Amino acid sequence: MSVTTGTTTQIYQVFIKASPEQIWAAITKPEYTARYFHGARIENTPDQHLSHGPDGSIWADEKVVEFDPPRRLVHEWRSLYDPELAKEPASRVTWEIEPRDGGYCLLTLTHDQLDGSPKTAASVSGQGWMFVLSGLKTLLETGSALGAN
Amino acid sequence: MDDDDRVFKALADRTRRLLLDRLFERDGRTLTELEADTDMTRFGVMKHLRVLEEAGLIVTRRSGREKLHFLNPVPIRLIHDRWIDKYTEGPAALLADIKHALEDDQ
């Protein structure tokens, strides 16, 4: 069977009861990511995707390809926290936020361009992104930190 | 019907679980590929895929003329979080308490 692009693309979707602005803040500001992204303090700006682990080491320092608040964020991905994964070429992560009825948004996360990065693909699949996204939903729907704004 | 109802209803069918298993093995398959794994008609498989999509268990993407199907495991994770985590909280909290008690003794 021929290999399609599908084998190197992962797509995750989750409904979150929050505004697009709240979700955008939660994925771009380090004080929020630290609470659901394995403790990583991640800052996304128009120029840079920078992630620090809980011990202060650099987990990611990549390019931001698109920065369109509060709807769409595209950045490159390399897992610098693991030497084996860090050797693989950069892949791409796309966050899309679509407002839906009833105060919900549909958040779609696509991790693709993983063709040359099989170890990275295996490490983020399943539990990896799922854990992050369910944590993000829990933070936004039950956490008090983002409730105010 | 709420989101959990849709997920349970979607999972309460052997063919639909089989389709999810196929996508778990290899994501991003076309209808034609998925159809080949079952003894159902194309129309039957399409109907099952629609139920799975409405439950949020699969996400589809167009790639040229083809429609690719991707497994989205997040709704199942959320069901796990809602009930199973309640059982695991106990031992985890107990271990944390023991750790604190031991540290206090020192």
Topology of this protein?
The complex is a heterodimer of chains A (149) and B (106).
Chain A: E1 10-17, H1 20-28, H2 30-33, E2 41-44, E3 48-52, E4 58-68, E5 72-77, H3 83-86, E6 91-99, E7 104-112, H4 118-124, H5 127-142
Antiparallel strand pairs in A: 1-7, 2-3, 3-4, 4-5, 5-6, 6-7
Chain B: H1 3-11, H2 14-25, H3 31-36, H4 42-54, E1 58-63, E2 66-71, H5 74-105
Antiparallel strand pairs in B: 1-2
**CATH fold label of chain A:** Alpha-D-Glucose-1,6-Bisphosphate, Chain A, domain 4
By CATH, the architecture of the largest domain in chain B is named Orthogonal Bundle
Shape-level CATH architecture of chain A: 2-Layer Sandwich
Q: At the first level of CATH, what is the class of chain A?
A: Alpha Beta
Oligomer state of the chains in this structure: heterodimer
Total count of helical runs of at least 4 residues of chain B:
5
Number of strands of chain B: 2
Measured between the Cα atoms of the first and last residue of chain B, the distance is 55 Å
Anisotropy-based shape of chain A = globular
- Poorly predicted regions of chain A: 1-6, 144-149
Main-sheet strand order of chain A equals 1-7-6-5-4-3-2
List the secondary-structure elements of chain A in sequence, H or E: EHHEEEEHEEHH
Structural class of chain A: alpha+beta
Mean pLDDT of chain A: 89
N to C succession of SSEs of chain B: HHHHEEH
Number of domains of chain A: 1
Strand content of chain A: 25-35%
Q: Widest sheet of chain B: strand order?
A: 1-2
Largest interface: A-B, 20 and 21 residues
